[in-house]
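Give me C-alpha cells for this 328-residue protein.
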Amino acid sequence: MAKRLKGLSMIEPFSQQTAQQRRLSEDWGFSSKSQGKRLLNKNGSFNIKRIGSSEWNALSLYQHLLAAPWWLFYLLVVVVFVGVNCFFALLYLAIGIESINGTNTGVWTTHFYQSFFFSVQTITTVGYGGMAPQSVAAGVVSSFEALTGVLGFALATGLLYGRFSRPSAKILFSQNAIIAPFEDGWSFQFRLANERSNQLVNLEANVIMSTLETVDNISKRRYYQIELTASRIFFFPLNWTIVHPITPESPLHGKTAADLEKLDAEFLVLIKGYDDSFAQEVYNPTSYKWNEIVWNARFVTPFYPSAAGDTIMDLGAINRYETVGRQA
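Here you go.
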C-alpha cells in the first residue's frame, strides 16, 4: 500500500466549512450533484448530454460545421454536392432529356450521366457550351439551379473561411500528471507545449480539483482551487511544467492513490493566452482523472542544445517521465 504524504488532509469536513468556503467549493460552473465518468473530457469538451429540447432547437448546423474535423467537413461538402446534382439530374430526366441541347440518345444510364454533368456545369456556372437548355421547363430548372449554386458556394466559402480564421490554441498536454519530488516534499505536476509554431504569450493556468464526497449520506461534488508555483508565464517557446506543491494547505495533503480513487478525483485545467496570429485571446481546457496520475515520477527534460547552438524542442518527449526512488 502506498505511503501517505506527510501530514493529514487539510480538506475540512463540509459541516465545518464556513459559508464562503462552501460557496467556493461549489461555485465553479459544475453542480455539486454532478457525477459520472468525468466532468471534462481530455479534448476539452464537457461531458454533458442535453435533453428536453427538440432536435431542431438544439441543432446548430453552423457551429457543427465549424467545429467538425476537416475530413468530415470535406466529406459533407462532397456528399451535398453530389446529392444536389443528382436531384437536379433527376429533374432534367423528368422533363425529358430532349429538353437539353447537345445530349445523345441512348439507354437510361447514358441520359442520367449526361443530365448529371449538365447539372454540374450549371450549378458551378462553368458552362462549356456543349449542352444547353432548349425548353422553357429546362430553362426554369437550370436558372433555379444556378441560383442554388451561387448561394451554396457562398455558404461553403464562408464556412471554409470561418474554419481557417477561427481562433484556437493547439496545446499539447502530457498524457499523465505525476506526483513528483519538489524541494523537500512532493508536488502535483503536468506539462504542456505549443504544438504549433505561432507565438503564444501571457499564458495563464487555472487548475481545480474536483472530488466526490459524502455529506449526510448524499454524494456531492466539491471543488478546490489548486495553488501553483507559477500560474502565469510571459513567453511560451518551450514546455511549461505546471507545479502544485503539496503543502499542509493543499487538498492533496495526506492523500494516497487509493484516496483519490475513492474520491473520484479529477483535476480540471484551463490554459488561456494571447495568440499573436489571431491577435486575440485563446484557451485550451483539459482534465486529469485519478487514474491518469503517475506516482513517484519525474518528467524528463524535452529540449536540448544542438551542435549549432540552437535549442531543439522535442514534442514527442512531453509525455516522458522516469520513476524516482523516493516513495510518496
